[in-house]
């Protein structure tokens, strides 16, 4: 008998607003084709692993001391990368980093959300936006997307005027549907908002659209662009998310972040990974090519594929998506059932992952529709 098994969750004096909630729970199953969490399927290069190991070893000599609380060198490197790709001359003062972009989102909601405050997002979108909102006691107000999963900009402007959210989430490219917004549309949404606008660009490297980083100088009190090293940088296990914003926005986050939140080891590892950034990001074009191939093949099978500029595709339409998800799993292919009736999401994997996924798709199709 496990120690403490006498207490159930329902026995605990939990906050009322958390009773009955479900935790984030993408299954982690050891099957041959794991294409359910939008990771980069390519492992780090040998050169990166060697550099990272040496960097962590060097950092370990000082493990008895706390890390640089403000992660200045890492933020300088991240700013350099963003400046290169966006053409906006960002400095370390424009960038903040944390343990995954989920922690960045949590810090933003701790600073700008909270009791009596509201956050709006266009659903279906990233499931952690409402979960982190609820966790920080920010009232979550979902607004619908159009039937094709795009944002209805005039309707969105109406929602913003009506609800006046303290935090507006714009996910571009959107997870789990894959589409992105034009910069001019994001500018319009920011123009209508009073609160901050969190543009979640976790998948930006896979898209050709310009980044909302271009809007920071125009709306320095509002625009925050959230990025991650979990996807294109193939660093999901390293846990490194970051944002670009005005220096004032980062001053706000310093009020809520935990001191020394980014370990010496994380900072050293992320800096090493960034040194190999050009090499790692070489996988982006390959994954985009594969995304096009996978989308075309699924379409040829008669499936509906939502246009994506991320590293995944949402596809259907199945009479029973959960049963279809199970059928794929029985064949060793782990997809994501994101709860959109009739649809499943597949992350673009290696060429052989994708071949296997397409092969299983052909075999499950007859039974599923
Ligand atoms: N934003 C979006 C839109 C995502 O899809 C994800 C990961 N699935 C994240 C943020 C969080 O990623 P991480 O914490 O690994 O940076």
Comma- or semicolon-separated keywords:
369 residues; alpha/beta; seven-stranded mixed sheet; 11 helices; 12 strands; binds 4'-deoxy-4'-aminopyridoxal-5'-phosphate
What does this structure look like?
The protein contains eleven helices and twelve strands. By secondary structure, the protein is of the alpha/beta class. The protein is globular, with a radius of gyration of 21 Å. The termini are far apart. The model has no long low-confidence stretch (mean pLDDT 96). The structure holds 4'-deoxy-4'-aminopyridoxal-5'-phosphate. The site of 4'-deoxy-4'-aminopyridoxal-5'-phosphate (PMP) has 13 residues, from helix 3. It comes from Nakamurella alba. Homodimer. GO terms for molecular function: histidinol-phosphate transaminase activity; pyridoxal phosphate binding. Its cofactor is pyridoxal 5'-phosphate.
In short:
The protein is α/β, with parallel strands linked by helices and 369 residues long. Helices cover 39% and strands 14% of the residues. The chain has helices spanning 46-60, 72-86, 100-112, 128-135, 153-163, 183-192, 247-254, 264-275, 277-300, 321-330, 351-368; strands spanning 33-34, 95-98, 118-123, 139-144, 167-171, 196-200, 223-228, 241-244, 304-305, 312-316, 333-334, 344-347.
SSE order and pairing:
Blueprint: E1 33-34, H1 46-60, H2 72-86, E2 95-98, H3 100-112, E3 118-123, H4 128-135, E4 139-144, H5 153-163, E5 167-171, H6 183-192, E6 196-200, E7 223-228, E8 241-244, H7 247-254, H8 264-275, H9 277-300, E9 304-305, E10 312-316, H10 321-330, E11 333-334, E12 344-347, H11 351-368
Parallel strand pairs: 1-11, 3-4, 3-5, 5-6, 6-7
Antiparallel strand pairs: 2-8, 7-8, 9-10, 10-12
Helix pairs in contact: 1-8, 2-8, 3-4, 5-6, 9-11, 10-11
The structure holds 4'-deoxy-4'-aminopyridoxal-5'-phosphate.
4'-deoxy-4'-aminopyridoxal-5'-phosphate is lined by residues 38, 100-102, 126, 171, 175, 200, 202, 228, 230, 236, 241.
């Amino acid at each position: 008998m496990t120690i403490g098994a006498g207490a159930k969750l329902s026995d605990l004096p939990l906050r009322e607003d958390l009773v009955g909630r479900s935790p984030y729970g993408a299954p982690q199953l050891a099957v041959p084709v794991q294409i359910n969490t939008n990771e980069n399927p390519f492992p780090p290069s040998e050169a990166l692993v060697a550099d990272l190991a040496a960097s962590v070893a060097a950092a370990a000599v000082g493990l008895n001391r706390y890390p640089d609380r403000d992660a200045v060198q890492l933020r300088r490197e991240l700013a350099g990368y963003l400046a290169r790709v966006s053409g906006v001359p960002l400095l370390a003062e424009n960038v903040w980093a944390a343990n995954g972009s989920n922690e960045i989102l949590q810090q933003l909601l701790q600073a700008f959300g909270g009791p009596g405050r509201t956050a709006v997002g266009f659903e279906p979108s990233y499931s952690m936006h409402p979960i982190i909102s609820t966790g920080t006691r920010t009232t979550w107000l979902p607004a619908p997307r159009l039937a094709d999963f795009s944002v209805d900009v005039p309707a969105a402007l109406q929602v913003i005027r009506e609800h006046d959210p303290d935090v507006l989430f714009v996910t571009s490219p959107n997870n789990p549907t894959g589409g992105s917004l034009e910069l001019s549309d994001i500018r319009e949404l920011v123009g209508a908002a009073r609160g901050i606008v969190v543009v979640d660009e976790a998948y930006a490297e896979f898209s050709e659209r310009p980044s909302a980083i271009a809007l920071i100088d125009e709306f320095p009190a509002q625009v925050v662009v959230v990025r991650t090293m979990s996807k294109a940088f193939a660093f999901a296990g390293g846990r490194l998310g970051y944002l670009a914003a005005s220096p004032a926005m980062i001053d706000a986050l310093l009020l809520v972040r935990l001191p020394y939140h980014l370990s010496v080891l994380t900072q050293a590892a992320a800096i090493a990974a960034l040194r190999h950034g050009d090499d790692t990001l070489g996988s982006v074009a390959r994954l985009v090519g594969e995304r096009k191939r996978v989308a075309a093949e699924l379409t040829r099978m008669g499936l509906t594929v939502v246009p994506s500029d991320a590293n995944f595709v949402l596809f259907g339409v199945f009479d029973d998506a959960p049963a279809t998800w199970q059928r794929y799993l029985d064949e060793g292919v782990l997809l994501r059932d994101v709860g959109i009736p009739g649809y499943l999401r597949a992350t673009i994997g290696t060429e052989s992952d994708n071949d296997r996924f397409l092969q299983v798709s052909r075999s499950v199709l007859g039974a599923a529709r």
